[in-house]
Design a protein that fits this description.
32% strand, 10-stranded mixed β-sheet, 10 strands, 2,3-Dihydroxybiphenyl 1,2-Dioxygenase, domain 1, binds fe (ii) ion
Length: 192
């Protein structure tokens, strides 16, 4: 998988993004846009590449029981205050990009977007829930390309001076129920 590293993107500070919907700002800026979670073929060599090669720091781990698919460990990595910008794991996924996450400043924007996705019949992969490690309250929708988009609020920020790496044994404190439990039907495009 190719990684692009860049510096000096043009910022339109005087003309920030304004959604046509009545929602507030994304929580990005110096924290970066959010995070990505990659499904990798080789967990150990990927960890060496991102941690030992590129110098990202381990935030924590989650050990996941995937039922019939066995167990896997997800490693979460950061390069600044955002709890994590990258996570990697060996798990079955339709794309190498499992999902990316966008963070909004207002929990109501998560709720109204959750409603909108259901109104537009956007497939929901995971219901509203809260993660154990980064504490984000979020839900996951399925993009037309097959990867997921997580839309959330309240992701924690950390300080390396007092951060302790630990291993969690569940991804969520509550919620994030998988699709079969959701009253959302198959993908169709909004009425057009
Ligand atoms: Fe995520």
């Amino acid at each position: 998988m190719a990684n692009e590293i860049y510096w000096g993107a043009t910022l339109e500070r005087g003309n920030p993004f304004r959604s046509p919907r009545a929602i507030g700002e994304f929580h990005a800026g110096e924290l970066g846009f959010g995070h990505v979670v990659l499904a990798v073929d080789d967990y150990e060599s990927s960890l060496r590449f991102y941690r030992d090669g590129l110098g990202l720091l381990i935030s924590d781990y989650i050990e996941l029981d995937m039922g019939a698919a066995g167990k896997t460990t997800v490693a979460f990595l950061h390069s600044g205050p955002r709890h994590y910008s990258l996570a990697i794991a060996q798990f079955p996924a339709p794309k190498r990009l499992h999902h990316f996450m966008l963070q909004v400043r207002d929990i109501d924007d998560v709720g109204s977007t959750y409603d909108l996705c259901q109104d537009l019949r956007v497939p929901i992969a995971s219901s509203l829930g809260r993660h154990t490690n980064d504490l984000t309250t979020s839900f996951y929708m399925v993009s037309p390309s097959g990867f997921q988009v997580e839309y959330g609020h309240g992701g924690r920020e950390i300080d390396d001076d007092d951060w302790e790496v630990r291993t969690h044994h569940a991804a969520s404190v509550w919620g994030h129920r998988s699709a079969p439990a959701m009253p959302v039907v198959a993908a169709t495009h909004p009425a057009d």
